[in-house]
């Protein structure tokens, strides 16, 4: 078990090394900003990385508190499922009622890799490769439809 400081240091080191990894990838190193993440220009729609002890997810998350608004945006995204899933060999996982660890309900469209733990540094290369390649594809596909789903 880690102390709070050890865990904070591990998380900080993880993200610094992930940034360094991305800086070595040809199609990412010259971008002004690596990822759009929370700056999607669509209210309450975010692209995110979700790490835990059992795996990693790269996701589009819809966090409207109002369930009807959240499901409306989810339906708009599902209209463009073919575009969003382009280049994802096995498609994406679509969950309109995803419950975060903190108990908050969101809608999530994601791809995940299980069996990797970011607490183990020997898993980092696998995690970095998964995160960078899948976020690049998800972001690219999302940007193609962003204007079509804006509220």
What does it look like?
- The chain is an alpha+beta fold and 151 residues long.
- The chain contains five helices and four strands.
- A four-stranded antiparallel β-sheet has the order 1-2-4-3.
- The protein is globular, with a radius of gyration of 16 Å.
In short:
This protein is an alpha+beta fold and 151 residues long.
Topology:
Layout: H1 4-23, H2 26-29, E1 45-52, E2 55-62, H3 67-79, H4 81-84, E3 93-99, E4 105-114, H5 124-149
Antiparallel strand pairs: 1-2, 2-4, 3-4
Helix pairs in contact: 1-5
Cα(first) to Cα(last) distance is: 44 Å
Uncertain spans, ≥5 residues at pLDDT below 50?
none
Q: Tell me the fraction of residues in β-strands, as a range.
A: 15-25%
Percent helix among the residues? 40-55%
- Strand line-up of the largest beta sheet: 1-2-4-3
Please give the count of helices.
Answer: 5
Rg of Cα set: 16 Å
SS elements, strand count: 4
- The shape is globular
Largest sheet: 4 strands, antiparallel
């Amino acid at each position: 078990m880690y102390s709070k400081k050890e865990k904070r240091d591990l998380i900080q080191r993880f993200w610094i090394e992930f940034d360094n990894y991305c800086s070595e990838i040809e199609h990412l190193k010259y971008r002004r900003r690596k990822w759009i993440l929370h700056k999607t220009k669509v209210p309450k729609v975010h692209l995110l990385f979700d790490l835990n002890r059992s795996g990693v997810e790269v996701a589009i998350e819809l966090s409207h508190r109002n369930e009807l608004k959240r499901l409306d945006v989810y339906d708009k995204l599902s209209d463009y499922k073919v575009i969003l899933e382009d280049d994802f060999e096995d498609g994406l996982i679509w969950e309109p009622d995803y419950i975060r660890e903190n108990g908050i309900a969101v809608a999530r469209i994601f791809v995940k890799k299980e069996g990797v733990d970011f607490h183990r540094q020997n898993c980092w290369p696998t995690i970095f490769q998964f995160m960078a390649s899948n976020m690049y594809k998800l972001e690219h596909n999302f940007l193609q439809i962003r204007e079509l789903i804006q509220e």
